[in-house]
Amino acid sequence: MHIIHLSAECYPAAKAGGLGDVVGSLPKYLNKLGENCEVIIPKYQTSWLDAQEYETIWQSNAPMGFESYNFSILKEKNDVLGFPLYVIDIPGRFDRPGVYIDPWSGKGYWDEFERFVSFQIAALEWIVSRGKNPDIVHCHDHHTGLVPFMMTQCNRYRSLVDVPTIITVHNAEYHGQQDKDRYQLLPAFDINKLGLLDWDGRLNSLAAGLKCAWQISTVSQTYMDELGYQSNGLELLFHQEKAKSRGIINGIDSEVWDPGTDPLLDENFTIRNYKKGKRKNKELLCKEFGLNPELPTFSFIGRLVREKGADLLPDLFTSFMNSDKEVNFVLLGTGDPGLHEIFARMENDHVGYFDATLEYNEKLAHEIYAGSDFILMPSRVEPCGLNQMYAMRYGTVPIVRAVGGLKDSVKDISEAEGYGIRFDEFNLLEAEHAVHRAIDLYSDEKKYWQTVSRIMKLDFSWNRSAEEYIKMYIDLNPKK
Ligand code: GLC
Question: Is the CB of 386 within 6 Å of ligand 1?
Answer without folding.
Answer: yes
